[in-house]
Amino acid sequence: MEIENLTKDIRARAFEKKDPKTPEQVGASWYNDDLTYEGISKTLFMILPTPGCSWALGDSGGCTMCSYVSDCTLEPIDTETILRIFNDHLSRHPINEEDKISVKLFASGSFLNPYELPKDARDEILKTLVNLGNVTEIIVESRPEYVKEEYLDEIFEIIGDTLFEVSIGLETSNDYTRLKKINKGFTRDDFENATKLMQHQRKTKGYNLKTKAYIFVKPILVSEKQAITEAIETAEYCDSINVDRLSFCPATIHGGTVIERLWRKGAYQPPWIWSCVEIINTVRDELSIPALLDTSGFGSRRGPYNCKKCNKDLKQIIIANNLTQNKIEYECECKNEWLAEINNSDMNNSTVKVKHIPLY
């Protein structure tokens, strides 16, 4: 596929310009309030040191919008190093002061992939968290091909009745967009099969297992209006197959990606913040599924943007309303400009599907 060749070429050039990170540089953590299944609770967020996403490191080149692999070691890390860095970050936060906390573990790829995170490191991390006595939720990310009954059995043998959520980057329910524009490398059926497996495990084995879908807002070669429609349709699809939670991820411009190449050529712009508000308000109004809206990059040159008057205010309102799940109520004169773009963005669209991206 040409999209894979282009993505891989851009990725390789980015690797040439950037030295791999050390495990200590990759590891990171922060601690704040977040929405959990039991309400608002203190949450520990931790980025584990890993070689990076196997999909991005392989022949595919990875996804067209993601550069997280560039912030990884690119080489396997031994268990001892992973655990040392994990325990160091664990000790930096006052987690023992809370009766209940949630822990979100990011591996810049798939937590369930033993190449990225060795099984013995994974198991020791889970044992440590359970032994703290106050961790009620553990949230991880994975591609669907690593969601296996064997892995889930191993995990729940350690964590018992602790809630365990697996977040999958579905991005969109539209297979053409996911495969041809995002270069995700898996189908909607793959996502649905992983989701059904987890639901079956919950039903037959009593595992406290939850599912979450990441939905990407405005992939390349998608208009502003199409981006809104596709994100809402994806939420409706997720709700129809009983996904437990949603997280909308509006596009930001990562370095060394196809999306950056288009952006630099003036052929792509991240979504309006108004588009993100329209999506989250519609979902909260029409569906019962809890939905979060990520605000990374909001108001920046490489992120979702409205105008200087309302960028900061809307970002803070969205963050606050992620906790309450209330709709976003706000007005600004720049909204008329956004509406004009929405109403006219598809006027000159071709009905022929894009088969290649002439960017070489």
From TrEMBL:
Entry cofactors: [4Fe-4S] cluster
Q: Which InterPro entries match?
A: ELP3 (IPR039661), Elp3/MiaA/NifB-like_rSAM (IPR006638), RaSEA (IPR005909), rSAM_sf (IPR058240)
Biological process (GO), any one: tRNA wobble base 5-methoxycarbonylmethyl-2-thiouridinylation
Presence of keyword Magnesium? no
Molecular-function annotations in GO: 4 iron, 4 sulfur cluster binding; catalytic activity; metal ion binding
Q: For this UniProt record, give its keywords in alphabetical order, as a comma-separated list.
A: 4Fe-4S, Iron, Iron-sulfur, Metal-binding, S-adenosyl-L-methionine
Q: Which GO terms describe its cellular component?
A: cytoplasm
| Listed SMART domains | Elp3 (SM00729)
The answer to whether UniProt assigns keyword Protein biosynthesis to this entry is no
Top-level taxon of the source organism: Archaea
Annotated ranges, domain Elp3/MiaA/NifB-like radical SAM core: 43-282
Which named protein is this?
Answer: Elp3/MiaA/NifB-like radical SAM core domain-containing protein
Q: Which organism is it from?
A: Methanobrevibacter gottschalkii DSM 11977
